[in-house]
Each structure stands twice: as C-alpha cells, then as structure tokens.
C-alpha cells in the first residue's frame, strides 16, 4: 500500500530487499537522504535495513525529546505508532502501518519538505 499525505509518503513492502529498492527509487525521484526512513517491527532488522539502504532510523530529531524518552517505557507497538505519527501520519494511519509491521513487513517513509 502506498499513502501520500501533505507531510510524508509511505509504502509497505514485504522484506528488506524490497525496502532497499524502494529507498533507491525514492532517491532517484529526488528525495534527500535525510528525509528517507525505514521501520520494521524488530529494531535490529530496522537497523540492518537502514544500513543496507543508507536510509535513516526515526530518532530524537523526528520524535522530539519527550516522545523519545516515553518510548523507553512503551510497548514496541506503542513505540512504533509514535514513531510513525512523528513523521506526519495520523493515529489511524499509524495503527494500520503498525499492524503491517506485526506481519513482518517493512515500512519505507519519505518526508516531504
């Protein structure tokens, strides 16, 4: 599923290989490296895909200090939804994407200017 809103573009892909390809497609279409993020349910998988694709993890810059600290005490699902919302998606959209991550899929997000 692709979704584009005023702030961000998102695509759910099946695996890390597809995520790397989608990151490359986004770069070729003009998105800057600093604006492309990958998220998987497992934080290690997220890091591996981000490294392989030269994309970013969602961090304090995107979440803000309060949410980054709060994520230390949240369940993984709550943490993922908060990260997705911090990139410009609604609570409902974040819930949908988090369910896709539960199924082992990977989310690629590109923030618009």
TrEMBL record:
Pfam short name (any one): YflT
Protein name: General stress protein
Organism name: Paenibacillus solani
Domain General stress protein 17M-like, first and last residues per copy: 10-104
InterPro entries assigned to the protein according to its UniProt record, in alphabetical order: GSP17M-like_dom (IPR025889)
Taxonomic path: Bacteria, Bacillati, Bacillota, Bacilli, Bacillales
